[in-house]
Amino acid sequence: RAWYELIGQRILETQITELNANGHSKLTIKENGDIVINRQKKEVFVTSLEAFPEKNYWDELVTVLQESDLTAKIAGNALQVSWI
User: Fold this and answer.
1) Sign of CA dihedral 60, 63, 69, 72
2) Residue 27's beta-bridge partner residues?
3) pLDDT 10s per residue in the chain (84 long)?
4) CA of 29: how far to CAs of 34, 41, in Å?
């Protein structure tokens, strides 16, 4: 929760606003903090999140994201976040 409030929230909100304006409805956060989207079935790098929490904290992060009206789920070694 602290990471999201201090670092993640601002970056995610900015990226989601931009991606939504370009017709996207989801993004993927890799284990290393890289944010990627799929464009024409290819993975496209968007930005990277500093100090992204380790995988053992992801369940809590999913809950925090849901409190911000985002849908999040753990998919293997990545976190999928959608907003529609």
Assistant:
1) positive
2) 81
3) 899 999 999 999 999 999 999 999 999 999 999 999 998 889 999 999 999 999 999 999 999 999 999 999 999 999 999 998
4) 6, 17
Amino acid type, 64 = V
Beta bridge partners of 34: 48
The H or E element containing residue 11 is helix 9-21
Dig out the tokens for 28 from the structure. 């993927």
pTM assigned to the model: 0.93
74 bridge partner residues: 79
Coil/strand/helix, residue 80: strand
